[in-house]
Amino acid sequence: MKNFIGADGILKKKREYIMPCLGHFYSNPPEFVRGEMQYLFDTEGKKYLDCYAGVSVINCGHCNPYITERMIEQIKNLQHVCNIYLTENFVNLAERLAEVAPGNLKKMFFCSTGTEANEGSLLLASIYTGRSEFIALQNGLHGRTKLTMSLTGIGMWRTDPNPVGGINFAPNPNCYRCPLGKKYPECDLECANKIETIIRTATSGKIAALIAEPIQGNAGIIVPPKNYFKRVKEILEKYDALLIIDEVQTGFARTGKMFAIENFEVTPDIMSVAKALGNGQPISAFISTEEIANTYTRPGASTLGGNPVSSTAGLAVLDYIKEKNLALNAKERGDQLKSGLLEIKKRHPIIGDVRGLGLMIGAEFVHPDKSPAFKELDEVLEILKDRGFIIGKGGVGRNVMAFQPPLVITEKDVDDVLNELELVLTEKNF
């Protein structure tokens, strides 16, 4: 058996060789060395139910044999030549993605990360419209590059001391903590209506696009009202601006639909995808209509974008999602999880809100005055980890328990995590 350096050894090397911007979960973190579908294993052989999936990446399960065996076979034959040469897998993957993408989204550009995909989406919007101003939502997160970080509306992730100009932020549709102090539905979607006010008063009146996550992940699983994006699209069309939807966290069956925006019955003009498309293999893409995509004519390439191995993974992911009907499992297990959390909420007032779609569910921890109970959440997550459950966290106040597990989890898995959460909250008197 391999000798591992362990968590302490990793942390020591991390302090010496890794930039300090990279943090980690848990005060006493394990070293993970193996994955098997919905489970992780540490150096001691301890088994954990993974309820975070590497932040919505491992939708089809860790080391899924259906996917990894295809990747291994591809590696044996051809690993990389760059997409300026002709290989088959990436065009086959493009064809398959066009078949499942919303509306008439058809043409795409492959790259390696969600940040790249969002950056490319923004570039395409500027090329098509000839404009350079953008609107984003407060508390959204779109990446780590100069422009995508500037469009990120969460302070802790806006580490660039000199963000890009020409960007304005609209209120995000958070009905639990409405930034406008309104109540839905009496508000008449005032958060969406504010977008027109911003266009008329804070911009030249000619914006390129608005970019938004259909469900804000890092903000704490913020789900808009049903008609929110319809109103947004109407406003944008009035000003000849585009709608960019960032499906980096939400795509590929996670919400019970292939793409989360389908829950809102709106087709974006441009869509970014990444994460779960590769099930752990780096791949991303931005996708648009023929009319918009065909304006991107000047030379462009991505050295590793759509390489043969990543494209093989993407094709296998789409096959597996369809064959195993993971969208249905996400809906059914998500309904079970959400219902269970709402029952726990009745008995434990520290949970102030439960929200989400499919297997993208957030439980917000709050004090009696509704202030973020982030310390209590950290304590609960640490105990759950020690008992074999890995659950994420998010929210602007870092107080939202985030469930984004592999979509292969079972009814028993959901019962197990709910039962353990109930026990911990009872023991802590939360």
Structure explained in plain terms:
The protein is an alpha/beta fold. It has helices at 6-17, 53-56, 65-77, 89-100, 114-129, 146-150, 190-202, 228-238, 290-293, 308-323, 326-347, 374-386, 411-428; strands at residues 32-36, 39-42, 47-50, 107-111, 133-137, 167-170, 207-212, 242-246, 270-273, 284-288, 351-357, 360-365, 389-390, 392-394, 400-403. A 7-stranded mixed sheet has the order 4-10-9-8-7-5-6, with helices on both faces. Helix 3 (65-77) packs antiparallel against helix 10 (308-323), helix 4 (89-100) packs parallel to helix 10 and helix 11 runs parallel beside helix 13. The radius of gyration is 21 Å and the shape is globular.
Concise structural overview:
Helices cover 37% and strands 16% of the residues. It is of the alpha/beta class and 430 residues long.
SSE layout and pairing:
Layout lengths: L5 H12 L14 E5 L2 E4 L4 E4 L2 H4 L8 H13 L11 H12 L6 E5 L2 H16 L3 E5 L8 H5 L16 E4 L19 H13 L4 E6 L15 H11 L3 E5 L23 E4 L10 E5 L1 H4 L14 H16 L2 H22 L3 E7 L2 E6 L8 H13 L2 E2 L1 E3 L5 E4 L7 H18 L2
Parallel strand pairs: 3-13, 5-6, 5-7, 7-8, 8-9
Antiparallel strand pairs: 1-2, 2-3, 4-10, 9-10, 11-12, 12-15, 14-15
